[in-house]
Q: What sequence folds into this?
């Protein structure tokens, strides 16, 4: 009899806590879970390791809640471990509920934006495993907005790649194109307008969305990048042909209104042409060109650039001394 009264009192206390709790533990039936996990005796020696781990995580979760409050940030680590356990067991519905609680507590406590964005990405993965494409897309979008607000472009690029993969083959063309355009912008910021990452994404977009659905200027950009990278691989990054590919890319970006990128590519093309020019016989004014190319190589600083720049400066000094000695005669 007293045991029954005790159980009833415990249930009433738990009900009262949940009634006024803004951060309720997600469950289909809180009473069933509470009685099963807290009140009924269980022979843990007969439980599997995963079942024992789950019981301990839930117990710690309630202890943190009772000690520090349901909104306490201390609960997040325990709940996140519970999400991982459910995810490994493919209990996606339960994992999704607990991950939503993680985000709710993190937002209340004002945690770092990067951690909150990562939590939204985890929620998107769970939504995707449940076949909830729209909800997964929304979670990806929330994460992307947070990453952009703190200018974490590397994490933003990974988030956008996952978002694009989620919707590209699911008849969501307009949203996929918007994500693709944003991803192109981020790749240009991270790796430059001629990066292979940019080329790879353009190829993936064509394969996923269909070449006939890709705008003409995007197809042209892809062809120009492919031509540039083929020339660099076959002939070297400082060949005359590479300079020509850079000029064509510069003209393309100019037509797209990307004036800074166009100017940078045109200048890189000019420096490559100048590099090939000074590599030949001496000519009047070559000293000035040698020093300009040396400055460019030192700034670029790839592979043996600094060594080549050093010898160009020495060559410029020798030519200047030779001209000076001839002038004295």
A:
């Amino acid at each position: 009899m007293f045991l029954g009264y005790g159980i009833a009192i415990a249930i009433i206390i738990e009900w009262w806590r949940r009634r006024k709790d803004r951060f309720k533990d997600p469950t289909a039936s809180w009473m069933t879970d509470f009685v099963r996990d807290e009140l009924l005796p269980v022979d843990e020696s007969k439980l599997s390791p995963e079942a024992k781990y789950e019981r301990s995580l839930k117990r710690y979760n309630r202890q943190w809640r009772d000690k520090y409050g349901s909104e306490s940030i201390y609960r997040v680590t325990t709940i996140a471990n519970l999400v991982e356990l459910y995810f490994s067991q493919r209990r996606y519905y339960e994992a999704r509920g607990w991950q939503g609680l993680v985000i709710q507590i993190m937002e209340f406590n004002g945690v770092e934006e990067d951690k909150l964005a990562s939590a939204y990405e985890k929620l998107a993965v769970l939504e995707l495993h449940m076949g909830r494409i729209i909800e997964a897309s929304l979670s990806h979008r929330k994460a992307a907005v947070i990453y952009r607000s703190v200018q974490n472009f590397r994490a933003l690029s990974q988030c956008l790649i996952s978002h694009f993969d989620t919707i590209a083959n699911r008849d969501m063309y307009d949203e996929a194109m918007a994500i693709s355009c944003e991803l192109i912008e981020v790749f240009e910021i991270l790796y430059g307008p001629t990066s292979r990452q940019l080329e790879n994404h353009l190829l993936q977009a064509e394969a996923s969305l269909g070449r006939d659905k890709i705008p003409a200027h995007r197809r042209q950009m892809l062809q120009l990048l492919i031509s540039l990278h083929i020339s660099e691989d076959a002939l070297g990054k400082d060949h005359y042909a590479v300079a020509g590919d850079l000029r064509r890319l510069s003209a393309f970006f100019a037509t797209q209104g990307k004036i800074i990128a166009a100017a940078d590519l045109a200048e890189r093309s000019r420096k490559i042409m100048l590099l090939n020019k000074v590599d030949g016989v001496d000519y009047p004014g070559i000293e000035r060109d040698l020093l300009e190319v040396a400055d460019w190589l030192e700034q670029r600083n790839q592979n043996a650039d600094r060594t080549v720049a050093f010898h160009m400066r020495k060559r410029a000094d020798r030519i200047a001394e030779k001209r000076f000695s001839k002038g004295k005669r």
The chain has a mean pLDDT of 87.
